[in-house]
Write a structure and sequence with these properties.
Helices cover 62% and strands 7% of the residues. By secondary structure, the chain is α+β, with helices and mostly antiparallel strands. It has a 4-stranded antiparallel β-sheet, covered by helices on one side. The radius of gyration is 72 Å and the shape is rod-shaped. 21% of the residues are buried.
C-alpha cells in the first residue's frame, strides 16, 4: 500500500512537472529542496534542543531521585523553555535576543546550583564524589582526593564500606581491637578493606574494626592491605598449635609478655558474661567457640566484672553477717521475751497458787474445827463461827472451787453452811461421812439428833466418829450417856474412857470434863469407903449392943 501511494505521488508529480517548461521545473525543484531542507533543519534543531533538555532533566532526576512523572514534567518544561529562548537568540529584536541569552544562562546556572546543593558521597554509577581525612577529633569529608591542606594528611577515597564506618564513628563508636584468629580483612563483594591496622616497632600487627587512632600509641590506624593481611596471618601462624590450658588466675599468670608486650592469654565469654582464660588459641571444648585474643578493653571489663563480683560477694557477706547479727539479736530478743513470758507465767502460776493458797488459808482461818485432826490452824469454835459465817462461807467456797479434792475445805464449807444453808451442809457432811472424814461424823450426827430427831442414827454416827478418833463424837457420846440415851454396862467408866481419849486428842471440853468426872469418881469412892466404914462401925456397934 505504501509503495503504491509513493508511486502514485511520484506519477502525479511527474505529470505536473511535465506540463511545465524547463526553467519552471528547475525553480519548482529548487523550492521543494529548500522547503524539505528547512524542515529537516528544523527537525534536527528541535531534536538537539530535546536531548539538551533531556540530559538537563536526567541529571536533576538522578541528583534528587525524582519519580518518572515529575521527571517528564521537568523535561517538557525545560524543552519548551529552551525552544522559546533559543528562538529569541535569532530574533531581529535586540530585546528578545537579550531575553534569550539571559534565559539560557539562568537555566545553565540554575542547573549547576541545583546539582551543587546535593552533598552526596557517590554518584548513581557508584563513583565516589568525596574523600575522607582522619583528624584527632573527627573525620573530615572533602570533595577532592589528595593531601588535606589543613591537616597535611592524605584524603583517601570514600567507599560504601568506609561510609558505613564513618557513620559508626560519628555515632560514638571507636576502634576496637579484633581478637578473632580468623578475621575478615576485605569486603567479599567489593574487595574494599574493612579492617585497620597498626604496627609497632617490633613488627607486631594489631587489627582494629574501625578507623581512628591507636588507643595506646596514638598512631593513626591505616586501612589494611593484602600484604599486611598476609603478614598478620604469618604472625598468627607462628603460635604453636596445642591444646590450650585454662588459666584460673590471669592476674598471676600475666596478660602480656614483659619483654615483647605480646599477648599471652586468649579468652572465651559465655552468654551470661562470664570469662574463661586460656594460654593459647583454640576452641572452647563445650561450645566450640573460637578463643579470642585478650585486649586491654577485655581486661578492663573483666577486672570491673571481678570488682563487681567481689563487691557483690562482700555485700552478700555483709548482708549475711547483718542477717546473722539480726538473727542473733532476734533470737536474743526472743530468749528475753521467752524468759519474760516464763517469768510472768511463773509469777502468774505463783500468784494463782498464792490466791488458791490464800483462799485455802482464809478458809482454814475462818472455818476450821479446833478438834479436827486434819486442821492446819488453831480453828474456830462453833459459836465464834456463827459471827463470821458469811466470810467463812465465801472463803471456803473459793477454796473448794480451787481445790475440789481437798476434803478439809469441803468440811469447813459444811460448817459455815450450817448457818446459811442447812440442806447444803447436810449434803456435804453426808458425802464426807461416806469418805470417812472423821470430823464430819459429829456434825452429821448432831444434825440427825437435833434437826431430824433421829437419835439412833446420831448415836451410830457418833460411835463411828469415835472409832476414827474424832474428839467431838466422843464428847457427844458422853453427853448422850449422861442423858441415858446410850445404854452401857458401866456408864461412868465408859464416860471416863471417852473423855480421857478426847482429852488426849486435844479437846478442851473433854479435858475439863475428864477432870470433873475423875474428881466425881474419886469422891464417889471416898463416899463409898466412908459409907462402908460407917457400916462396919455401925455393925460393930449393933453387935456390941446385942451382947
Amino acid at each position: 500500500m505504501e509503495v503504491q501511494a509513493i508511486e502514485k505521488v511520484r506519477s502525479v508529480a511527474s505529470q505536473t512537472l511535465g506540463r511545465l517548461n524547463a526553467v519552471t521545473q528547475i525553480a519548482v525543484i529548487v523550492l521543494a529542496c529548500v522547503l524539505v531542507g528547512g524542515l529537516i533543519f528544523w527537525l534536527c534543531n528541535e531534536l538537539v534542543y530535546y536531548y539538551v533538555a533531556r540530559s538537563y532533566t536526567e541529571e536533576l532526576a538522578d541528583a534528587y531521585d525524582l519519580n518518572p512523572g515529575v521527571t517528564r514534567t521537568i523535561l517538557w518544561a525545560s524543552f519548551a523553555a529552551i525552544v522559546v529562548l533559543a528562538g529569541y537568540l535569532f530574533s531581529f529584536s535586540k530585546q528578545k535576543r537579550r531575553v534569550g541569552y539571559a534565559g539560557l544562562l539562568a537555566l545553565v546556572i540554575g542547573h549547576s546550583l541545583l546539582l551543587g546543593r546535593i552533598d552526596a558521597n557517590f554518584r548513581k554509577n557508584g563513583v565516589a564524589e568525596k574523600c575522607y581525612v582522619m583528624t584527632r577529633t573527627s573525620i573530615k569529608t572533602l570533595n577532592r582526593v589528595g593531601i588535606d591542606s589543613e591537616t597535611g594528611r592524605e584524603c583517601r577515597p570514600l567507599t560504601p564500606q568506609i561510609a558505613e564506618k564513618i557513620a559508626e564513628y560519628r555515632n560514638g563508636h571507636r576502634p576496637r581491637q579484633i581478637t578473632s584468629n580468623d578475621p575478615t580483612f576485605f569486603d567479599p563483594t567489593t574487595g574494599e578493606p574493612v579492617a585497620w591496622y597498626s604496627k609497632d616497632d617490633s613488627g607486631q600487627i594489631e587489627l582494629f574494626d574501625l578507623m581512628g587512632f591507636h588507643p595506646k600509641t596514638g598512631g593513626e590506624l591505616v586501612p589494611i592491605t593484602r600484604e599486611v593481611a598476609e603478614a598478620w596471618n604469618a604472625q598468627t601462624a607462628k603460635v604453636v598449635r596445642r591444646v590450650p590450658v585454662r588459666v584460673d588466675d590471669p592476674e598471676k599468670y600475666g596478660f602480656f609478655d614483659p619483654t615483647t608486650g605480646a599477648t599471652k592469654i586468649w579468652y572465651w565469654r559465655s552468654e551470661s558474661g562470664d570469662y574463661e582464660f586460656y594460654d593459647g588459641p583454640g576452641f572452647h571444648p563445650r561450645s566450640g567457640d573460637q578463643f579470642k585474643i585478650v585486649t586491654r578493653d577485655v581486661i578492663s571489663e573483666w577486672r570491673q566484672q571481678q570488682e563487681a563480683v567481689a563487691a557483690r560477694k562482700k555485700a552478700e557477706q555483709e548482708q549475711q553477717e547483718k542477717e546473722a547479727r539480726e538473727r542473733a539479736q532476734r533470737e536474743f530478743q526472743r530468749s528475753l521475751e521467752a524468759a519474760e513470758r516464763e517469768r510472768q507465767a511463773r509469777e502468774t502460776v505463783a500468784e494463782e497458787l498464792r490466791q488458791r493458797q490464800q483462799s485455802g488459808n482464809d478458809c482454814d482461818r475462818l472455818a476450821a474445827n479446833p478438834t479436827d485432826v486434819r486442821r492446819t490452824g488453831e480453828g474456830v469454835p462453833f459459836d465464834a463461827l456463827k459471827h463470821q459465817a458469811d466470810q467463812a462461807y465465801e472463803a471456803c467456797s473459793k477454796a473448794v472451787a480451787t481445790f475440789p479434792t481437798e476434803l478439809r475445805y469441803q468440811y469447813q464449807l459444811g460448817r459455815a453452811a450450817q448457818f446459811k444453808d442447812k440442806r447444803q451442809a447436810f449434803d456435804i457432811f453426808a458425802r464426807l461421812v461416806q469418805a470417812n472424814y472423821p470430823a464430819a461424823f459429829d456434825n452429821l450426827g448432831g444434825m440427825y439428833l437435833y434437826d431430824r430427831k433421829d437419835a439412833a442414827t446420831a448415836i451410830t454416827l457418833f460411835k463411828r466418829g469415835s472409832a476414827l478418833d474424832d474428839a467431838d463424837s466422843m464428847v457427844s457420846l458422853v453427853d448422850l450417856i449422861d442423858k441415858g440415851l446410850v445404854p452401857t454396862p458401866n456408864p461412868e467408866q465408859t464416860k471416863l474412857a471417852l473423855l480421857h481419849r478426847a482429852a488426849e486428842l486435844g479437846h478442851a471440853g473433854a479435858q475439863r470434863g475428864y477432870e470433873l468426872e475423875l474428881q466425881k469418881a474419886n469422891q464417889d469412892r471416898i463416899n463409898q469407903a466412908n459409907q462402908q466404914q460407917m457400916m462396919q462401925l455401925f455393925g460393930a456397934f449393933v453387935r456390941g449392943v446385942a451382947r
